[in-house]
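Q: I'm writing a short explainer about Shikimate 5-dehydrogenase for a general audience and would like to include a description of its predicted shape. Could you first generate the structure from this sequence?
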Amino acid sequence: MKRYGLIGRPLGHSFSAGYFAAKFRREGITGCDYALYELPSIEALPELLGAQPELQGFNVTIPYKQRIFDYLDDVSEEAARIGAVNCVRRDGGRLTGFNTDIEGVRLSLRLLLGDDLPEAALVLGSGGASQAVQYALAEAEIPYAVVSRDPARGNFLYDDLRPEVVAGHRLIVNATPVGTFPHVDEAPLLPYEALTAAHYLFDLVYNPERTQFLLRGERQGARTLNGLPMLEAQAEASWRIWNGVI
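A: Of course. Here's the predicted structure. Afterward I'll give you a sentence or two in plain language.
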C-alpha cells in the first residue's frame, strides 16, 4: 500500500482526503491511501514518519508550511524562493520540499481576473499561504501590500484598513484561515462598505464554499472566488511530484 497524507493542525475542515479518495475511484488507482495526520507540533513529524514507513509523500498546511524547512533534506528552487513548502516527497529516508500552492494561486488569479489586472492588491495574512500569493502577484506584476497582525510582517495592520485603503486595492486575497469551518460566522476585519463592483475577492478558504468574506463582497457587487480551484490544482501538482512526473 502506498500512503500519502496531510499534516497540519487542525484538520477537521480539510477536503484533501475526500478529494484524493474520489480521484482514486475516478481514475481506477488502486493500492493507494490518503489520510489526515493532525500533529500537535511539527516536532512530532519524525515519530509519524517512523510509524508510517509506507508514506510516500504528504501535503503540509497551517501552521507548518514554514516550520517544515528544518526537517527537509532538500527544497525545490521555487519553494525556497517562496519561503513555504506545502508538498513533501519521501525517497527512502530523504525528504524534499516543494510548493504546489503556487500553481493553485496562478490558476485562481487567471479564473478570477481574466485580462483585468488590478492596479493594487491587498493580501490578508503573512503566513505560508500568503507567501505563495505574494509570489504569484509579483509574477503577474500586480503591486500588493500585506496586512498582518504583526507590524513587522506587513505593510498594514487590520486597524489601518480605512475605506480609502480598501477602495484603492481592487483585489483582496484572504490568505488566513479566518472563516474556515466551523467558524463560519467569522470574517477578516475590513470596511466592506468600501467594496464596489470593480473589486475582486479571492478567499483561499474552501470550506465553507461561500465564506462571510466572499458573501460580504458579493453584497457590494464584487466578483469572488473561493479556494476550491486552488485546492484541486495544488493536489494534482502534488500527485505528479509524488509519482515522479515532475
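A: For your explainer, you could say: Residues 102-229 form a domain with the Rossmann fold fold (CATH 3.40.50.720).
Q: Perfect, that's easy to follow.
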